[in-house]
Queue: 2 jobs
Job 1
Amino acid sequence: LGTMKVNHKGHLEIGGCDTVELAQRFGTPLYVIDEALFRQNCRDYYRAFTEEYGAEVIYASKTLTNLAVCTIVEQEGLGLDVVSGGELYTAAMARFPMHRVYFHGNNKSPEELRQALEYKVGRIVVDNLYELELLNQIAGELATRAKIIIRLSPGVEAHTHEYIKTGQIDSKFGLAIENGMAMAAVKRCLELNNVELKGFHCHIGSQIFELQSYAHAAEVMMDFVQDVYLATGYLTEELDLGGGLGIYYCQGDEPRPVKEYADIMMGALKARAARYNLPLPKIIVEPGRSISGPAGTTLYTVGAIKDIPGIRKYVSVDGGMGDNPRPALYQAKYEACAANRMTEANAEKVSIAGKCCESGDMLIWDIELPALQAGDILAVASTGAYNYSMSMNYNRLPRPAMVLVGGGKADLIVRREDYADLIRNDVIPERLRSSVV
Ligand code: LLP
């Protein structure tokens, strides 16, 4: 994948950098981001959607964001999907062009809405009626008009290899089409003075391989566009159809090419628009995982190895659920290799344990690897998405550093947390200091 290869020392190399040297230089655990692959993934979307169909691609920050990543996304011509004041602030500090920012979230605070309006973000994706009224009021106070997109639940739920219609009325996100809440919101929007309705949004899920589910959701959205037109005369300008394309983590995962995804979805949209004799709205897609995920690799140093005869060999590494909570949270599967033993044959089946005080902190169960020893470097693949962004300080483990590699160069883009960072926000109240116990 990407620029990964094995060098003359038998070491894993990413972006022309020897990962064993990266581990020595920057320490472990270490997030390594392959710049060329990240950019390539952006370009695949830009070509398939923007160049081919004039659609806008906005990268989902929630998968991985920081100042350097925002800078790359900007350079590749993509927009940005943010879901909190923090992600918005990061974009602003990276000088990301705010008209290319879309602000999502099911419970934006009044402060976040005000912040978004003051930054002049491109679109606010309104999730519910409470937010609609609140935003209208805040926009009024700021003497501005918020450009909004309403989030809908189209009643399409995607699964890895199938799609099913569900009673999506029962979701914390968006307004359901089928119970009339979506239509009611549209009508209310058209009455409000300080919001300008631009279109509609949906997101049917993540890590999806079944492209038909996108086509189906797109059709349901176009049906709604037609219903709204007939009921109110409002002509939808934009449709934001979410993210979700699945990536390869382990055997059985069969990612589809971005071009195929674009062609199938745009084909379905065009056919519906033609059927209704409506202009095709501007299309927006919000990929995250399929851009950042494959571009990330995490390096760990092997420590304690415990063989329980006849049962299992546990190989512990110096990170785990703190830097990658996905196996513990979702039983997510990952593949790994011994970065300093790439030319050695697999010798045994082991399980990779994290270092948190929690039995569930297992990164990988039952993986074939060369015989490992303490000090070896383990590389876990496809950790670019929802790893650093979901990392935590459980057990007061400092978060790892992140390096951007490319053309044989490695640059620190997130510095490693240290112990001082861990107590930075701690306060000992004066009365604890002075009290005699
Ligand atoms: N747009 C919206 C509105 C979303 O809710 C999401 C993801 C995306 C775009 C990006 O989807 P992607 O292309 O990355 O699939 N933490 C979970 C995944 C949560 C997905 C949340 N929404 C995980 O680690 O698998």
Job 2
Amino acid sequence: MPQILRQFKEENASCVLRARTDKFSDVEMPQRQSLKAQARTDVRVFRDAHIIQIESILKIFYIFKDTLMGLIFGVEQMNETIERLNKLKKERNAVILAHIYQLPEIQDVADFVGDSLELSRKAAQTDADAIVFCGVHFMAETAAILSPDKKVLIPDVQAGCPMADMITAERLREFKKKYSGAKVVAYVNTSASVKAESDICCTSSNAVDIVKSVDAESIIFVPDRNLGAYVQKMSEKKMILWNGFCPTHNNIIFPEDILKLKREFPDAETLVHPECRPETLALADYALSTGGMCKRAAQSSNKDFIIATESGILYKLKKDNPSKNFYHASPLAVCPNMKKITLAKTIDVLLNMKNIVSVPDEIREKAYQPIVKMLKIA
Ligand code: 13P
Ligand code: SF4
């Protein structure tokens, strides 16, 4: 059995075991829910090669059902919904920030669509009274840490990030004791309480610069082992990596997917997100954050691109560059949590001013420092 398949099976087996034996008890709700949901998704998607096809098509159909309904029932109903949302936005003096992985209709109504670094900056700068954060929980939490005087709303409180849930503050504290003297760089895909235990944050677009800026003998990097391994290579720093990963990038996108497309489109530029496995990243012309991919696609004179990240980015890439071609490395690479955000839920939270994301003052004050440090450096 190829090494990559063996590793994948082991990872999923441990995920299944955790899901079955309810070993998420050290993790808080709703993070526990997102881990369980992700474990179940992984198990289902990968159980059998034939089931993958049927189940995933159904799953993708379910995820994009609002988009499809819009297409089937025409634009009129959609226009009414958008009008209602815009009216509510004005009444509440709210701004909608959306991650690049969001559904097309969410990207279309958002005031700003960006990667996690760009969204943090927008959240810190906006003078709106409310921020509707169309993304996953840690992103909304980061906005709440940066703008405590604003109401930050998330359309679905269950939209977590399984990678962020692979580390807790308690486990990080234990890890720090083991490697005393090391400084902690926390990927922004972490909870506020993990950030509060860290020296500085980073995102996938500034991770190399941030790690290079840290003055320490060794650096603990949490939680993404793939981004960590990439940064270690680029910065040549001594790094201790937490064993976390993104199920969408690590378990769905494989080198074979890219090699197949490279054979078909030999002149295409290959853009890979650093959350992918090292062997997948090794095939990249550019390792880039989602925002970095959008910039590269716009600036490059190349016409064809192979894209290795979550599916939502394809909509933005095609919309911004209609004359260029984008080939998705794996159309099954869908983040189920990102897709929990729908137009109906977005309207609902604005209408009822509910699902307010807040961080207790004690944690917020500690988590604020590593985020602001990051924003000052890169
Ligand atoms: P970006 O920083 O590229 O937006 O990535 C965030 C993320 O969650 C990727 O899975
Ligand atoms: Fe988390 Fe991966 Fe989804 Fe990004 S794509 S939010 S890292 S699970």
